[in-house]
Structures are given as structure tokens and as C-alpha cells.
Amino acid sequence: MADAHTGAGLAAGPGAASADLVIGPDGLGRPRWAASDELMRAYYDTEWGMPVRDETGLFERLSLEAFQSGLSWATILRKRPAFREVFAGFDPDAVAAFDESDVERLLGDARIIRNRAKILATIGNARATVELRAEGGLVDFIWSHRPAQTPAPTSYAEIPTTSPESIALSKALKKRGFRFVGPTTMFALMEAVGIVDTHLVGSHRRGTSGVWA
User: Fold this and answer.
1) Residue range 55-147+175-180, CATH number
2) What global pTM score does this model have?
3) How far apart are CA 123 and CA 81, in angstroms?
4) Which residues in 36-68 are b (16+ Cβ under 10 Å) and which e?
5) Per UniProt, where does Zn(2+) bind (predicted)?
6) Closest CA to 156 of 66, 29, 57, 33
């Protein structure tokens, strides 16, 4: 995944440190995947790695990470407005109530990723999210897997694709009925929502989340 936002995608990129961080015309350092495409740059500058601590926001990120599997993150970003529309703004209660007619509606909508398994997983994950409220909710559940330390990569090659915490989170979510939540996908989620900071050292976003000093 050459333009993925995840550690998995970054690790597949060029390994030379000098090629991994790009200084833009604005003088700011960004990873190569965020340096050229305007949409990806805006996502990197304003959203990726910033804390997400609301249920709807985390459910959306969890869902989009699942849909991204095997695809580029740029594809998901371009389709995100349509995803939000057809999945009721990723409101877990609304998605949990989807039935077979909704599945067929989604499979017929060319604006999103028409993968039955991922669509069914999203609906199932919404129901699991609602049930998880009895244990304190999705937000506390996911954030409880924050590690004691965060990576400090200087190159793509130093960015992990999984961690003990992402493995534990994957297992815990699967136990509660979630699907498409493998360790690599969960590490990508943890990167995206600020639980770990894998911004390259030298990036203008390094340390800006407020989660890590």
C-alpha cells in the first residue's frame, strides 16, 4: 500500500531515512505519503494522529480501517463522504438496526466499497459497540490499550505494524463479537486516533496530539 496512512503501509515504502521525510514549500516536514496528494496532506495536517474520544468518531474510524484493508487510504478518504451518508453518519444505534434490505442497498451503491463481508462486519460491529456500553463503552475500551511508551521513528523502516497492545486489543474486540479487527488493523487505528504517535521525528505533526509529551 504505497500511500497508506498506516504503519503497515509505511513499512512497505522506501527504507532510506532521507527519502521518508519531505520538506514542503511551506517548510514543514511530512512523510512522503502525505507530501503530494492534497487530500492526504490535509488529512495528515489536521486529522491523522489526533485524539478521537467519542463513540461515533471511533466507530467510524474502526469501520473505515476495516474497509481500507487491501486498499489505499486515499481511496477511503475520497469515499468517506459517501460512507458517512449511507451508514447514517456512523451512528452505532442506527447502523445496528440495519437489516437485509440495507445490506442490499449498500451493495448496490457504487460510491462505497461494495464488499458484503465488510458491510456485514460493520453492521455487526455497530451491534457489538452498543452492547459494549455495558462495560463502559467503546472509547474507554479502546483507549485502555494505550501503551506506556510510543515509538519515535526516524524512518519508515522503524514504524511497527503491530504491537503487544494492538494484538491484545484485537483479541479483546474479537471476543466481544467484532470482526475485521486484526492486530495490524488495530495498530493502524491506534495510530490514526492518537493512541500511539508514529509521526516521523522531524515531522511538523510529531508530538502535537497532546497525548504524548
Assistant:
1) 1.10.340.30
2) 0.90
3) 18
4) ebeebbebbbeebbeebeebbebbbbbbbbbbb
5) 199
6) 33
Which among 32, 76, 103, 111 is positioned nearest to 189, based on CA atoms?
76
Taking residue 129's Cβ as centre, other Cβ atoms within 10 Å add up to 28
Q: Please, which residues bridge with residue 169 across strands?
A: none
- Spell out where 47-108 has E strands: none
Instruction: Determine whether 73 is an active site residue.
Output: yes
What distance in Å separates the CA atoms of residue 99 and residue 101, rounded to the nearest whole number?
A: 5
- Catalytic residue, candidates 55, 65, 158, 165: 65
User: Tell me, what's the pLDDT at 208?
Assistant: 95
Q: Is 44 a catalytic residue?
A: no
Distance between terminal CA atoms of the chain? 30
Catalytic residue from among 43, 48, 143, 156: 43
Closest CA to 187 of 4, 38, 3: 4
Residue 2 has pLDDT above 70, yes or no: no
∠ CA 187-89-142, nearest 5°, is: 30
